Amino acid sequence: MSSTFPGSPWPLGSSLTEKGVNFSVAAPSADRMELLLFEDSEDKTPARVIELDRRKHRSGDYWHIEVEGLGIGCCYGYRAFGPLAPGAHGFRPSKVLLDPAARAISGWEVYDRMLATGPCTNAHACLKAVVTERDPFDFAAHPRPRNSWQHTVIYELHVGNYTSRADSGVAAERQGTYLGLIEKLPYLKDLGITAIELLPVFAFDPADAPPGRDNIWGYSPLSWFTPHQGFASSTDPHQARDDMRQLVAACHDAGIEVLLDVVYNHTTEGNRLGPILSWRGFADLTYYHQNEDGDYLDVSGCGNSIAANQPISMQLILESMRCWALELGVDGFRFDLGIALSRGDGLKPLDKPPLFEAIESDPLLSDLKLVSEPWDCGGLYRLEDFPARRIGTWNGHFRDGVRRFWKGDDHSTWTLAQRFKGSPDLYNKKPVALGRSVNLITAHDGFTLADLVSYNRKHNLANGEDNRDGENHNNSWNHGVEGPTTNAAVIALRQRQQRNLLSTLLLARGVPMLSMGDEIGRSQGGNNNSWCQDSPISWMPWNPDQCDQALLVFMRRLLSLRNALPQLFNPLVPPRETASKQPHDHGDVLRQWHGVSLSKPDWAEWSRTLATSLHMGSRGALLWMGFNAYKDHLKFELPVPASPWMRVIDTSMPSPMDLPEEPVPFTDLEIPMESRSFVLLLAREAANGLKL
To answer: Is this model's pTM higher than 0.90 or not?
Structure first.
């Protein structure tokens, strides 16, 4: 039998040594620990059980041991022994526990989630951690793209759903995988995407769902370190790490950054009736917010909330981020319900959360793009005062304000102007730095763009919850018919509205995020919560006959336009505003707001129209945009251009003239705008050489 040694508390998890493998795990309140070694992932009993002596194998809150002769591929688990006190530390040594810092997981063939609950043993049906390499990502061969925030366009997608269809053009064995996604990078590059944001790829349990359904989105992690095996090209537990590295390398080579949607605010262990899989078995009270009676405090909507203010929790999250950023090469993170990580004891919001301070001061994480949701399910919503200097936030107000304007709601015109120029009203009337606010119209959670203009209400019966799940307040509009229709007028209006929404998003100041398939009119049949739908409902369509090819052309040209003129559409410093009809400052770009008449914007509650122009001092206007959400066509008075006007966008025109490859001269003093349409004019000097 191989020898054992005291080992080291660092690094966490399992790591190779000259003699074998070092194991380290936090269990501050445990009386004793056992390390279980399995010869194979399907073994029902451990081949060896090693008891850890608290005098030799414990340092502070960490238990550790070095075992000679072990190496990569070793399968292992733990048993933790301690007091079983209701509402406190629920140690159940009958459960085999997964190392919270495991970088690979095996045992899926025998795993039974139900057996991880209750008092019975589950050694015969448990998941095992697997010893892996910890090699750094090869940044020398595949350096980070480091795209500036000014030029960043984020595209949110689900790794599995993106290439699951047979018409994806991806080989059958790679459909729905990390490697399958690589084959679609040329499409994303051609579209104009600079960053992909992956829905959770942390290992998750598909069985964490109602009976008869699978958890597809993965917003209840099983591990913060392991890439999800279901997206790997084989069942080898090491393959997911290899595949993830290949995906990141291919993205870097294409100039595309990889951001991960990460869930550190809760886990798959659910409420107190949930399974004991990992965190709960080692340090229940340490990892999870609880009240004095030991009841779980839940601001995630998923049964538990991670106590990120606790040093052990914080350390594990930081190490997870370093694993993904330095070993697997990803370029940033988007924190799901991230503001929940700012809560302290008793869920009290903290102005200086220790986790965020640690992230922002860590030099190993200093070159990453960081974004967070500024809200949680407990009602906390912090946007301007988000308690971190370098973490940007999703701007849900942008989504709601732009939707309401194009829907034709009251009190929406002034809000549109604020959102379009960077939401200074939400940031103490100060210009917000690019990267601080991520603008969006749609995301995975909610209607797709096509469904946003096709449904008045959600249609989630397929989820098996009697249509109770999913958001009810969508600011959507079906334009006269609920769902699919053959009415040509309704179809044309919906197509125009999609272009209006996309133009507003991509020409507004800020960092835009697009949702998978919005560029080709992907529909989920009105389902606005497809978390359990591994089906055509949530798959990306690729057959040209099922895709809106005209919208795709529009999107490509729109992104090309945005990229070509960042100083007009997404300046680092927003232009000063003036109400003067004839600006006189020769050096600055100035913004004016208008209605149908120059310099007379209508901010009344009933207003449905708005226009804006940019001027280079007294030389004339460089740009004019008109937004007409009114039910009738109107004529808008135009400012004097610095050089003759060129029409770039008119969403009322048929494709491809709605955004032609080259701008079209426009000479009138007024411009007619159709009902519910958007128009962009550029002075010839600004449009010079522009070819989309």
So the answer is: yes
Q: Which of 485, 418, 408, 419 is nearest to 450 (CA)?
A: 485
Query: Which of 204, 229, 187, 300 lies closest to 540, judged by CA?
Result: 187
Stated length of the chain: 692
- DSSP letter string over 574-642? PPEE---SS---SSSEEEEEESSSTT----STT--EEEEEEEETTS-EEEEEEEE-SSS-EEEE-PPBS
> Which burial class, exposed, middle or buried, applies to 186 when counting CB atoms under 10 A from its CB (0-12, 13-18, 19+)?
exposed
Which amino acid, one-letter code, is at 595? G
For strand 20-26 and strand 13-16, is the pairing parallel, antiparallel, or unpaired?
A: antiparallel
Provide the pLDDT for residue 689.
86
The pLDDT assigned to 87 comes to 55
User: Computed over its alpha carbons, how large is the radius of gyration of the chain?
Assistant: 27
**pLDDT computed for residue 85 by the predictor:** 67
Q: By C-alpha distance, which of 315, 309, 263, 318 is closest to 25?
A: 315
- Among 399, 688, 680, smallest CA distance to 554 is for 680
Q: What residues are labeled active site?
A: 336, 373
- Cα–Cα nearest to 323, from 413, 390, 262, 397: 262
What percentage of the chain has pLDDT greater than the value 90? 92
CA angle 187, 193, 195 (to 5 degrees): 120
CA distance 529 to 317: 28
pLDDT in tens, 611-650: 999 998 778 999 999 999 999 999 999 999 999 999 999 9
Distance CA 248, CA 273 (A): 38
Quote the CA–CA distance of 635 and 382 in Å, as a whole number. Answer: 41
Angular region, 142: left φ>0, alpha ψ -120 to 50, beta rest: beta
pLDDT, one tens digit per residue, over 39-73 is 999 999 999 999 999 999 999 999 999 999 999 99
Q: 373 near 393, Cβ under 8 Å?
A: yes
Measured between alpha carbons, how far is 106 from 671 in angstroms, rounded to an integer?
65
Answer whether 418's CB lies under 8 Å from 509's CB. Answer: no
What are the residue ranges of helices labelled H in 408-463? 413-420, 449-452
Q: For residue 582, what pLDDT is reported? A: 67
Q: What is the pLDDT of residues 171-199, one digit of tens each?
A: 999 999 999 999 999 999 999 999 999 99
Residues β-bridged to residue 9: none
CB atoms within 10 A of CB 258: 25
| 93 residue type, one letter | P
How far apart CA 67 and CA 19 sit, in angstroms, is 7
Q: How confident is the model at residue 212 (pLDDT cuts 50, 70, 90)?
A: confident
Structure-token pair, residue 660: 């032609």
Q: What is the DSSP string of 223-260?
A: -SSSBPGGGSSSS-TTHHHHHHHHHHHHHHHTT-EEEE
What's the CA gap between 207 and 459, in Å, rounded? 24
pLDDT above 70 as % of the chain: 98
pLDDT digits (tens, 9 = 90+) for 587-617: 678 999 999 999 999 999 999 999 999 998 7
